[in-house]
Write a structure and sequence with these properties.
The complex is a heterodimer of chains A (59) and B (313). With 59 residues, chain A is an all-alpha fold. Chain A has one domain. Chain A has two helices and no strands. The longest helix of chain A is centred in the last third of the chain and has 18 residues. The N and C termini of chain A lie far apart (40 Å). With 313 residues, chain B is of the alpha/beta class. Chain B folds into two domains: 172 residues, 3-Layer(aba) Sandwich (Rossmann fold); 122 residues, no CATH class. In chain B, the strands form two sheets. In chain B, strands 2-1-3-5-7 form a five-stranded parallel beta sheet, with helices on both faces. A two-stranded antiparallel ribbon of chain B has the order 4-6. The longest helix of chain B has 13 residues. Chain B is globular, with a radius of gyration of 22 Å. Classes of the chains: A mainly alpha (59), B alpha/beta (313). Chains A and B meet through helix 1 and helix 2 of A and strand 6 of B.
């Protein structure tokens, strides 16, 4: 199992949406692809919203 | 004149209180001479609102030593815990529920609203029935360990905790010395034979017995993890060993992690999967790996699983 697949499983185990992780290959000769990837990921994360911080800090 | 002591129980099953009683004969001088118990709900008849109910606010008397069991899952638990912190100089969290969330914290792994509906509105429930909210303490948003809400001076995990350790901690406090506590992980206290990494590809389910010769002492049995069983010894705090071997291993059964993680902020799921991965076990093959957190679901370890969102527009 690849490491990135395992990260997705691990995130799921701890209650994080798998969409919060993404692995994209872009070469320096593909600027449009890079822009599209970053824009798409930013939009995706904004839509998911902040991680629901359930841990209280130790008193 | 003994040292004033208050006990309280929050989301507790009373197993920790029974563990205190299981100290046995050594308990008698502790509670008659060494300690002066001023408040203990299950063992002593001292009430929150005055002995005849004349009080208005929940009050616990002042004490030097406070022992609290059980986790914090509703507002009454929180109120009692904060009062204990206010009135006790040294506050001890006893039992894995108090130190790490324990079994009640399993609920943190499910959607809370769904859980309540499942509990209170089954197929046979009369129509119009509601989740009770009158004259019952309001639940918190999840189950907490005590140290997430107040400062705790000493943690004594265990499900149940080891009566000998409870006695040792109380006596060491009174003698003003550091308690003598066992080593780091359950493996440190386990006498089984280690022969090196076992020839294991998949984790074995405990539907077949471990390999051992009946009647032979424990130190003749091969380590259960090496035999391929999911023994949480490496990622669990030591303390359960009585009579020379960890409690479950002495019954030839793998450890379930009931003392919580070895380090304070250890993650029993991650650490155990790490240990298995280093033995070549596939992460996904352990389909019930979330139950590695069955005793340590507080501190934000266990959260509801989010379903994969469908493709957005």
């Amino acid at each position: 199992m690849t490491r990135s697949d395992m990260i997705v499983e691990l995130l799921g185990d701890f209650g994080y949406e798998p969409e919060r992780f993404s692995l994209t290959w872009v070469s320096s000769a593909e600027p449009d692809k890079f822009v599209a990837a970053v824009t798409e990921m930013t939009a995706r994360i904004k839509k998911l919203g902040p991680v629901n911080r359930q841990d209280a800090s130790v008193a | 004149m003994g040292v004033t002591t208050a006990l309280e129980w929050l989301g507790s099953c009373s197993g920790c209180e029974i563990a205190i009683l299981n100290i046995g004969e050594a308990l008698v001088p502790i509670i008659t001479e060494a300690l002066d118990i001023v408040h203990a709900p299950v063992l002593m008849d001292h009430k929150y609102f005055g002995q005849c109910g004349e009080g208005v606010t929940l009050t616990i008397p002042e004490a030097v030593v406070g022992i609290v069991t059980g986790g914090v899952s509703n507002h009454e638990h929180l109120e009692v815990l904060e009062e204990m912190r206010k009135k006790c100089k040294v506050l001890i969290a006893l039992g894995t529920c108090a130190t790490h969330g324990g079994i009640p914290a399993l609920m943190n792994g499910q959607d809370r609203q769904q859980s309540w509906e499942e509990v209170y509105q089954t197929v046979t429930t009369d129509p119009g029935a509601q989740i009770p909210n009158v004259e019952v303490p309001a639940p918190l948003d999840r189950v907490y360990a005590c140290d997430e809400k107040v400062k705790i001076d000493m943690q004594l995990p265990g499900c149940p905790p080891n009566p000998e350790l409870i006695a040792e901690v109380i006596v060491s406090l009174l003698e003003n010395r550091a308690p003598v506590l066992p080593g780091k992980s359950v493996c440190d206290t386990c006498p089984t034979r280690r022969e090196g990494k076992g020839d294991v590809e998949k984790v074995k389910r405990f539907i077949t017995n471990a390999t051992f010769k009946p009647g032979e002492p424990i130190d003749q049995m091969r380590c259960l993890l090496e035999q391929g069983y999911l023994c949480m010894g490496p990622v669990t705090a030591a303390g359960c060993a009585k009579r020379g071997a960890p409690a479950c291993i002495s019954a030839r059964v793998p450890c379930r992690g009931c003392f919580g993680p070895v380090r304070k902020d250890g993650n029993q799921l991650l650490d155990m999967m790490n240990a298995l991965a280093s033995n070549g076990i596939d992460y996904k093959s352990v389909v019930d790996r979330r139950s590695l957190l069955r005793f340590s679901g507080a501190h934000g370890m266990l959260r509801p699983v989010k379903k994969r969102a469908d493709k957005e527009d």
